[in-house]
Amino acid sequence: MSNIRGFASDNNSGVHPDILKAISEVNEGHVVGYGDDRYTAEAIEKFREVFGPDVEVLFVYNGTGANVTSIQALTRPFNAVICSDLSHIYVDECGAPEKLAGCKLLPVHASDAKLTVENIKQHIHGFGFEHHSQPKMVSITQVTEVGTVYTIDEIKAIADFVHSHGMYLHVDGARISNAAVALGCSFKEMTFDAGVDVLSFGGTKNGLMFGEAVVFANEKLAENVKYIRKQTTQLHSKMRYIAAQFKALLTDDLWKKNASHANKMAQILAEKVSGIPEIEITQKVEANGVFCIVPEKLIKPLQDEYFFYFWDEFRNEVRWMTSFDTTEEDVNGFVELIKKLLK
Q1: What is the pLDDT along the chain (343 residues), one digit of tens a residue?
Q2: Burial class (CB in 10 A: 0-12, 13-18, 19+), 20
Q3: Handedness of CA 110, 111, 112, 118 (dihedral sign)
Q4: How far apart are CA 76 and CA 54, in angstroms?
Q5: Which of 52, 81, 187, 278 could bridge to 137 as Cys pair (CB 3.0-4.6 Å)?
């Protein structure tokens, strides 16, 4: 692998310089640990400026931790969580939600990985029947695992339906910034204004070194969650280093600048490969992911130069992800290599 600057994941990118600066600036002296410090308080206040004064915010280490903490806070072990069969909680978290929350995950299939009221309905039954896991939460991913984006109206429809059955709506927002840019809306408009109950707010994929946030619509929903975070091993002792990153991310629209650039690079990549007859784009390119079917003979030589992952190995479908630090030179070099290999 001669060029690690590939298109494997936005987790592979570096840390934004402003984030490194923010970490450095709080790296002086002693403060009280576990979040009882002014830096954590300032970061939480920044979240409330963005999402509204009533939200409750907890910082955790990673996306799986954020999702598990969110689910545990609003369910019991006899409950079930409805999700896409492509969702991170179902496919890529090694059973952590089921192990730690004790809930059953009920998958829904959709080619674009988006849940709808209609495809959720298949699991809306068995309420009050003691032999059946009780549906209590729907979890959607924004941006989805195949790069598609829920509109605000789509989220509102799901939220209204879920709430009518006494259930909660969780959003796995690992790429929530990319979604906000794609929709041209605020975070609040597509989450709590739309009826979301709890959000896993992603930072690592958008320029942070580490750390995610769990954001609840109100204090009542977050009751006892601080104990859940501790039991889930997600309570960071030196909390100021996570908090400082989020304060910087939410200051002067750094989140938007990073996500806008990543989305733009994906659009450029998609536009350039769409003119190559041998490449078939399989999903709408709405954020920072491009999904394509590629001739088998190209895949290994391309991976050797610009690493990326298979999405569906059986049909030679691959996933190309762009990041806040992807350059047009990266894209142009990659596309030129494709054309060279096809000659």
Answers
A1: 556 689 999 999 999 999 999 999 999 999 999 999 999 999 999 999 999 999 999 999 999 999 999 999 999 999 999 999 999 999 999 999 999 999 999 999 999 999 999 999 999 999 999 999 999 999 999 999 999 999 999 999 999 999 999 999 999 999 999 999 999 999 999 999 999 999 999 999 999 999 999 999 999 999 999 999 999 999 999 999 999 999 999 999 999 999 999 999 999 999 999 999 999 999 999 999 999 999 999 999 999 999 999 999 999 999 999 999 999 999 999 999 999 999 8
A2: middle
A3: negative
A4: 24
A5: 81
CA distance 108 to 130: 23
Residue closest to 210 by CA, chosen among 11, 18, 36: 11
Is the Cα torsion angle 90, 96, 101, 104 positive or negative in sign? positive
Whether the Cβ atoms of residue 216 and residue 181 lie closer than 8 Å to each other: no
> Which CATH number fits the domain 17-249, given the four candidates 3.40.50.2300, 3.40.640.10, 3.40.50.1820, 3.10.580.10?
3.40.640.10
Domain boundaries, the chain: 17-249, 254-342
Task: Tell me the whole-structure pTM to 2 decimals.
Answer: 0.97
Share of the chain above pLDDT 90, in %: 98
User: What are the two backbone dihedrals, phi and then psi, of residue 290, each rounded to the nearest 5 degrees?
Assistant: -125, 120
Alpha-carbon separation of residue 313 from 94, 213, 220, 298 (angstroms): 20, 33, 45, 13
Q: Residue 116 class from Cβ within 10 Å (0-12 exposed, 13-18 middle, 19+ buried)?
A: middle
137, β-bridge pairs: 81, 168
